[in-house]
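User: Hi! I have a protein structure encoded as tokens and I'd like to know what sequence might fold into it. I'm fairly new to this, so please keep things simple.
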């Protein structure tokens, strides 16, 4: 039977014992019309675009050095400033926005302490934790409530650090340890273990976590690839699919296996490195509340694994919303794996124009930009049925809740938006908005690209019309 005479549901999965592998969009699923019958969701109204539009938020902790971040002039972007040099190959896919801010973040005494939460919801209440109140749901959770009816997972929240406990300067540190809030009093934890994130996407959860939050051993079940379990289903689908679909399927399954192998390698390496005196381990445990995921070892591979997980989730339409936390605001992480860096992230951010500290701060910022470049490259390599790429059909927002790490500036936030939002956004430009434009206006624009018919969000005053001009 030819593939043109029948179709399969876009929700079809390859299944095996304890395994369900979602599929990318294939021609056999009905091509461009496969999303036409998606339901509308009440409050706010959701009318999905013909091709799904995904949204991802990634934070830039500890601010930046604005003299070297962004581009000169407005209009078409030709060359990025030094701290964004890694993104030069993607200049045609990027929009820079100036003069966005969070008004609530300028309240006295906030500095770092509640900015991550403010970055995604624009509202906050100062508290040591007894009466925690984020003021509303975060941007990602708002979007997830609308798209949850048409995806396997409402939202994918990933990160690199376990949450902080306790308080700082009268603020509960839970505020700057989370981007996502499902209610004013409920933060959504980040998944910081690549293995558990993979299991969530492809198999029943399993494995135990070590003190770093990373699974320390591979079970016998883990040693068998998820693709081994679904080999029969995959073979049956190949027989019925077109040559083009067979190519897409093979490309996707290869990517799944590549991620799986990398996780296996990382777990084995971590297990080798855990030769720690038990007394030292007990002493570390007594510190409590400030588990730091980075100890000077290069964690770039682990971070990219987490980004790969988000790409796989978007590629298969398992979710349309994701967040990723590089690190908490005001973190004291050790980035000495970067050549030339000796201070912590927070210490280097308060460089006071010292040439030595500023150089280290620059190197840390450059490393972050390099990871964004990796993510965009992965997304651009995936072709979708509407003729565009996964990046074309997404909005990747990378930015910080501080204008300047040295002086805690909180106006004109660093805001970089990549992707075309399904063809709505016209990238390759630097757009200068009126002074003190609410950051929530950008979120409102992102909602509308996704098909969420919202009229307002937080302190928004309207969508950013310039994005489509």
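Assistant: Happy to help. Inverse folding works backwards from shape to sequence: for each of the 469 positions I chose a residue that suits the local structure. Here it is:
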């Amino acid at each position: 039977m030819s593939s043109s005479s029948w179709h399969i549901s876009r929700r079809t999965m390859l299944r095996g014992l304890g395994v369900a592998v979602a599929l990318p969009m294939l021609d056999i699923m009905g091509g461009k019309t496969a999303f036409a019958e998606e339901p509308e969701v009440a409050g706010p109204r959701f009318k999905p675009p013909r091709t799904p539009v995904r949204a991802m938020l990634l934070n830039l902790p500890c601010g930046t050095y604005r003299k070297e971040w962004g581009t000169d002039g407005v209009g078409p972007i030709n060359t990025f400033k030094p701290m964004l040099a890694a993104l030069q190959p993607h200049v045609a896919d990027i929009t820079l926005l100036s003069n966005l801010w969070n008004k609530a973040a300028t309240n006295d005494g906030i500095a770092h302490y509640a900015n991550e939460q403010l970055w995604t919801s624009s509202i906050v209440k100062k508290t040591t934790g007894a009466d925690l109140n984020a003021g509303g749901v975060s941007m990602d959770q708002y979007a997830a409530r609308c798209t949850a009816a048409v995806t396997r997972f409402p939202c994918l929240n990933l990160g690199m650090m376990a949450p902080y406990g306790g308080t700082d300067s009268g603020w509960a540190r839970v505020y700057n340890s989370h981007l996502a809030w499902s209610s004013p009093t409920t933060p959504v934890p980040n998944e910081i273990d690549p293995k558990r994130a993979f299991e969530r996407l492809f198999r029943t959860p399993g494995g135990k976590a070590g003190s770093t939050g990373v699974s320390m051993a591979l079970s016998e079940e883990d040693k068998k690839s998820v693709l081994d379990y679904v080999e029969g289903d995959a073979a049956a689908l190949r027989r019925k699919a077109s040559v083009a679909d067979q190519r897409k399927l093979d490309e996707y399954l290869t990517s799944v296996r590549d991620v799986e192998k990398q996780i296996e390698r990382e777990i084995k390496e971590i297990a080798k490195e855990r030769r720690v005196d038990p007394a030292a381990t007990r002493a570390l445990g007594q510190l409590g509340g400030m588990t730091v995921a980075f100890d000077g070892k290069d964690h770039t591979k682990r971070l990219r694994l987490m980004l790969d997980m988000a790409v796989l989730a978007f590629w298969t339409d398992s979710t349309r919303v994701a967040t990723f936390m590089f690190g908490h605001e005001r973190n004291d992480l050790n980035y000495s794996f970067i050549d030339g860096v000796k201070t912590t992230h927070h210490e280097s951010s308060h460089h006071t124009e010292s040439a030595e500290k500023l150089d280290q701060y620059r190197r840390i910022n450059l490393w972050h930009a390099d990871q964004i470049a990796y993510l965009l490259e992965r997304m651009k390599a995936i072709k979708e049925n509407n003729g565009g790429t996964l990046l074309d059909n997404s909005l990747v927002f990378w930015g910080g809740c501080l204008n300047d790490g040295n002086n805690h500036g909180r106006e004109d936030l660093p805001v970089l938006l990549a992707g075309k939002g399904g063809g709505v956004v016209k990238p390759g430009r630097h757009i200068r908005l009126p002074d003190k434009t609410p950051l929530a206006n950008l979120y409102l624009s992102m909602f509308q690209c996704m098909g969420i018919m919202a009229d307002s969000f937080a302190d928004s005053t309207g969508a950013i019309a310039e994005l489509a001009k």
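A useful reference point when you look it over: The chain has two domains: 1-34+208-292, 43-192+293-468. Feel free to ask if any position seems puzzling.
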